[in-house]
Structure formats: structure tokens, C-alpha cells
Fold:
Amino acid sequence: MEIDYEKTLSYYKKLPLIGEEEHCHCIYCKNYALATNHFPMIVKTLFDDIGLDPKKGAEVSHFYQAKNSKHMYVADYRIFGKILKKPSVSVVDIYYKNDEDYFKLGFEEGHTSDGAIIFYIDAFLPWVLEEDPEIM
Ligand SMILES: [Zn+2]
Structure:
């Protein structure tokens, strides 16, 4: 994959942090922003390599809280550039313990009008906010 760093960086520079007023300040987005601190090291490194701030610009969807108390999230990030060689798999398991405890990421092309590549995270993340989502 060839990444247009300048375009990706300038796109992200303008964006508010996830969980801030201008993005969406719901408790689930706030928790997501903090949970990015707990991403596996390999994922953090990948974000650095792409030039992405994991706390910025994603479209965050919260699904539910699993019995193990982790929360299922899907977050879509946009990156600009082109995929030079189609990877053999479009979804990568960073780890998989069971159906409610895994961390996957993937890439999707050709779904946005601005030609961005969607880089997404599909994972069960810890709840790290002080506030309890159950009493909100
Ligand atoms: Zn939100």
C-alpha cells in the first residue's frame, strides 16, 4: 500500500479528537478514545506507520457489552493513497481468544466519494472511563 501521507496528515490535522464536542461527546466515544491507549503494541505501531492518530477522526460505533465486561466497537478511519498490491487477506486477526474477545483490523476500498481507503478496527475493548455506562 502506498500512503499519501500529506493528504492523510492534513485531513487528520483538521479533525477534532474523538469524544470532544465537535466530534461526538457520548460516553462510548469518550471511552473509545481512552481505550486506544490500550491497543496492542503492534496496532499502535501500525497507526504510527500510517501517520494516523487513533484518537482522531474515526467513525465510532459501539455495539454492546459482553459478559466478560469488554465492549464491542467498530471504528472506521480514512486514509488516502492507493493499495498497490491487494493483500491476500483484507481482515487481520491481531488476536482472537473467543467470539467476544478479539481484535481485528481490516481495509476496504472504493466505498467513499473522496476515494479514501477505510481502515477499520473491529474489537472488544476495555471500559476505562470512571463513569459506568450501565447507569447512564
Ligand atoms: Zn459517540
The longest strand covers residues 71-79. The chain has one domain: 2-135.
